[in-house]
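anyone seen this seq b4? input:
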Amino acid sequence: MKIGCPKEIKPQEFRVGMTPNAAQEAIARGHEVIIETGAGQGSGFDNADYIAAGATIVDTAAEVFATADMIVKVKEPQAAERKMLREGQLLFTYLHLAPDPDQTHDLLASGCTAIAYETVTDSSGGLPLLAPMSEVAGRLAPQVGSWTLQKANGGRGVLMGGVPGVGPAKVVVIGGGVVGTHAAQIAAGMGADVTVLDRSLPRLRYLDDVFGNRFKNQYSTAGATAELIQSADMVIGAVLIPGAAAPKLVTREQLSTMKPGAVLVDVAIDQGGCFETSKATTHAEPIYEVDGIMHYCVANMPGAVARTSTIALGNATMPFMLALADKGWKQACQDDPHLLAGLNVHAGQLTYYAVGKALGIDVVSPNVVIKS
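predicted toks r here
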C-alpha cells in the first residue's frame, strides 16, 4: 500500500502523523511511504530522517494526496485538504466530527473512508489512540492555566502553590477520566488545592484508592459544579463523550458567580467545548476574556509539545496503521472490532451514531458497511 503523510496545516500545529520509525516499520513490510517535505520539522524530524527510513519525499501535499492509498495525519483535514480526498481513499486521523458539520459533509461528498483515532476502542473500554494526547493535554492544562492566571495575562494573579502564609490556588477539574486524572496530578504537584468532579462512583473510588489525599474528589452534579466554581481560581473542563459533542457544564450566567480573573481551561474544545462561552483558539492567541473570566481554549493543546506528542501518538497509532496497510481497511476492521469502532465515514455514508445524532444525519451501521 502507498501510505502518505502530509504536513499539518492547521495553525500552530507542529505534530506530524508518522514518525521515521513508523515509516521504517511500514517499509519493512513492503509498503511505500510518501512524506511531504518538512512534514516532521516541527517535531524535530528532518527529511533526512525519513529518507534514511526508506521514505520518499515529495514537494507538495497535492502529490501526497494524489499518490497515496492511505493518508495518515494528526488533525482533522482542513478545507483545502478535504478537496484533495478522493473516492476509495483511506483517511486515518483525528476527526472530531460531531461539532463540525462542514468537515462531515465534505468527507461524505469525497467518497473516502475515514477512520477516526478518537473513536477506536480497546478491550477495557478505553480509547487507546485518544489516550496519549489526553495524557499530554491533561498534564498541560494546569501549566497553561497557571500562566493564564498571571496578572499580566488577565488572570487573578494567583500562584498555584501559594507561599508560606498565603493559600494555594483552588482548582476544580470537571471529569475524572484520562485528561482529568493527569490534570489533577499535575495541579496537585504544583501545590494547588484540587477537587475532581465525576459522575462515576467506581472512578471516584479508583481515584481515592490510587491517589489518596493528594487531591479531593466529589460526585458531579449541577449543584456541586455551581458551588465549587464560585471559589475556584481555575476550572479545567475534562469531560468526554466518545465521538459526541461535549456537554455544556458551565453557563455564561454562572460566570458572574466566579471570581474576576478566574481561568477556564477547556480541554474538550475539540468536541465543541464544555463551557457555554468556549470558542476554539490557537497557540498564537490562546486566551480571551468573557465577563471578567479568562478562557484558554486551544484546540490542539498537545501541539505545543510537538515532539513528545508525536512520538506518543505514533507509538499508539502504528499497530493500527500497519494492520490497515497490511490487510486493507475492510479486512482489518473485520478482524478487529475495536478498529471498526473508529470507522466514521465510508463512501458517502456516515457510520458513527453519536455524530449522526449530533448533526441530524442518517447513519449506516459499520457492520453493514464492511459486509456489503
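The chain has a mean pLDDT of 96. The longest helix spans residues 306-327. kinda curious what u guys think
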